[in-house]
Design a protein that fits this description.
The chain is of the alpha+beta class. The chain has helices at 9-69, 74-78, 80-92, 99-107, 135-147, 213-216, and strands at residues 112-119, 125-132, 149-152, 158-159, 162-174, 181-190, 202-205. It folds into 2 domains: 8-93; 99-217, Immunoglobulin-like (Sandwich), CATH 2.60.40. It is 46% helix and 22% strand.
Length: 226
Amino acid sequence: MIQINLLPDIKIKFMKTKRTERIVVFVCGIISAVSIIAIIVLYLTVDVFQKNHLNSVASQIKSESSSIKNDADVNKIITIQQQLKSLPALYSNRNNPYEIFNILQQSTSKGITISTFNINYQTGALTFGGSADNLLDGNVFYNQLLYSTYSLEKGAQQPLFGGVTISGLSGSTRSSTTGGASINYTVKATVPVALFKTGANVAISVPNKDVTQSTLNQPSASTFTK
């Protein structure tokens, strides 16, 4: 069988070239479209979204900065130097929590034990409780609290305890010293907060004898003499 080639070789090569050209143009078109889309996205991100975000952050920073600058104590808060300058004053004005134990030790009479204790160093409110060997010891202790005084920096004598109240006085436990029923009590009072300042020169005076009302108001021997 005889075949006749009606297309010359040059024409076949031309058609192949055209087909390749169309493929290249198509691929280049797709690449160009993708590139254009990427450029648009980058433009929107950089020039629109990011700019709006930066403006928002700048506005927030400006607002917060203005709020901080309007604070009168900003320098005391953010500078270490100001904090260090305040340390000597804070140290000199610190409370001495152990002074109250010294006060109670001097004010507690014989036969009295303290088992519970609470104090507010800001207001001087004091509450403590315990037991007394007997009712007389409890009354003596109560009156000693009433008549105890103090002087600050060698000043005038002033009452050491204010608003002294005592409650309880019910025999419910056994005394460790007498073997009898002891007296439970609770005392509420106030103590001058100036006594808790470190370095305060405090002198405490506590009656060293029976200061119950029956003793203080006891008539003398001359009352019964003619």
